Amino acid sequence: MDAMTARPFSAADFRRRAARETGPFSGDDWGDHRLNPDLRELILGNTLRDAAVMIAVVDHGPEASVILTQRTANLRNHASQIAFPGGRIDAADPTPEFAALRETQEEIGLPPDEIEVVGRMPDYVSGSGYRIAPVLGIVRPGFDLSINPHEVDDAFEVPLAFLMDPANHRRDSRVWNERERFFYAMPFEDRHIWGVTAGIIRTMYERLYR
């Protein structure tokens, strides 16, 4: 299947779109502050910690899916939330891509040689103090996952078409430090995708599919 005939939510079409996301990128244009401009100085004024996540698209032919995880309840940050595989960039990691691949293997047992890195979006700044590099990858089906129970309760797939449909992007809010804070939420079956993960998904929609 070539680029002209690839279905809109196939891995082949995703690869073509992701190829445009190569950087270099500059500025802090993407992050939680896009929905909360009044908190921009507070969010960007933090000492940001570098992190990377893997947006792993599974090649199921015409209808690809995306791997997400359910974090354990005992983690210091974003406990029990839906997340992409990923974590902090260590000093020994040569690139964000390397860190995302390493963390993906550590969390869900998916080895780097099974992931084709096809691009990387601009960093996403979170209100929790992270500058996150979203790495774009493609995975062939047939892999076996080995979940790290200290970090992840479960791993599952969500159709790419669902995540890239703006009708599923709900704008929610809650009060945080006596201020209303807005975020995206994307409920899927019994999973509540929201916060940073939903924000990164929304960024992928705006940059690749809008």
Brief description of this entry?
With 210 residues, the chain is an alpha+beta fold.
Structure, explained:
This protein is an alpha+beta fold and 210 residues long. The protein has a single domain (11-205), classed as Nucleoside Triphosphate Pyrophosphohydrolase (Alpha-Beta Complex), CATH 3.90.79. 21% of the residues lie in helices and 33% in strands. The chain has helices spanning 11-18, 40-44, 96-108, 160-163, 195-209, and strands at residues 49-58, 65-71, 82-83, 86-88, 115-120, 124-125, 130-139, 152-159, 170-176, 179-188, 191-194. Strands 1, 2, 3, 4, 5, 6, 7 and 8 form an eight-stranded mixed β-sheet that branches. The longest helix is centred in the last third of the chain and has 15 residues, at 195-209. It is globular and about 45 Å long.
